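This section describes the prediction task in plain terms. A model, or a person checking by hand, is given the sequence of a single protein chain and must write out its three-dimensional structure as a string of tokens. No templates, partner chains or ligands are provided. The sample shown here is typical of the held-out split.
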Amino acid sequence: MAKNPTSEVKLTDRNYLAEAKMRNHFAVIDEPLDKGGDDNAPTPVEYLLTAIGGCVSITLRMYAERKGWDLGEITVNVIQKQELTSEGIKKSLVEEISFEKEVSEEQKAKLLEIAGKCPVAKMVKGETEIETNIN
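The expected answer:
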């Protein structure tokens, strides 16, 4: 049985530079200079956008392989948008998906539906509870 995914993040004593460990992989996280960081790595939001794009592209490739569709390279751009509303700043995400190979309108419709089934995107849409504890 697969182990539950985990991530351990330690904030160093260097402004906002954090070190993350996921299984046998390591990543660093930071904030840009204008936010008080040293701009040594992507921000947490940039990692989140990357996680969504990665998950969507993998989900689409898995589906296409089962259908025998050759999509070629799959590109997913995930953009965070902000707009000022009467209730304050509203943030939203936009996914722009493109394929190297030609896809029919019928395939596009199905792939759009499948993109929404990406587990990371579903988490962000509020389908996963977060329990927070301080040890």
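For orientation: Residues 9 and 20 are 4 Å apart (CA to CA).
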